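_Full entry_
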Amino acid sequence: SAYGIGDCISHVRDHLDWRVHLSVSYPDAHASVPVLGALTMNSSQRSIFRSVAAHGILITYTIIAIFPVFVILINSFKTRKAIFREPLALPNEASFSLIGYETVFKQGDFLLYFQNSLIVTLVSLFCVLLFGAMAAFALSEYRFRGNSLMALYLALGIMIPIRLGTVAILQLMVASGLVNTRTALILVYTAQGLPLAVFILSEFMRTVSDDLKNAGRIDGLSEYRIFFRLVLPLVRPAMATVAVFTLIPIWNDLWFPLILAPAEEVKTLTLGSQVFIGQFVTDWNAVLSSLSLAILPALVLYLIFSRQLIRGITAGAVK
């Protein structure tokens, strides 16, 4: 249109007038281009420096975290003399020995301890994920009086250590006849893991589309089928995060197995490793070998769910 052509001509004229004014008033205006390039280069250098610094900090933290595990693993394949003489050296032909692993499988009932730990950990993990997800779905989906207070009450379990109630828990287990049973450990670990599970999963479930759930209701799905078939598949990263954060404290715990289940037939792997630690003499080969074997399940679980775990942690950090 004529109006559009005239408008374009006006913009071009203004642009040419600005260029003429700039060249007359500031004859060295083009000299500012290298300055801008230098500023851009400095900004790029700062960005690279920040990236290198961040990666340096993360790598340093990773080395510090992995170093104890590395020391345990390499020393589990060495003789007793080599452990004390060169604890940081890799095993060689002179120092290599499997005496620790032979002692673990011969003297200690390692397979029974491993079985007890596996049963307690898996059942506790299943209960935490199931009941935690159901409670999180109820808190995020249904609004009722006291909803916020209930969420706050559950979140208090993260702040208050469960070990503060050890005496009361022991009295309760004695009265229930559950001392020296795996059931006692499963109940305690389930109660210990539920607050964190509800806190994390409820935040994720609030992001699930209401339209998707309402479409399921229109199609005739019950609340249980909506929960299991629609909601749970969408919060798998959060489930993996909760699984790893719940599994490691349960697998490594020594406190409650020592108090609630010290009998030989229900000892966990962590408690069973203590049989090699004596009052005067400690079989360090056997201790390090049993600890190396105890690391494997948690390591395998992380390798399997690492992608889901990283997604869950990242999303939780954004929230």
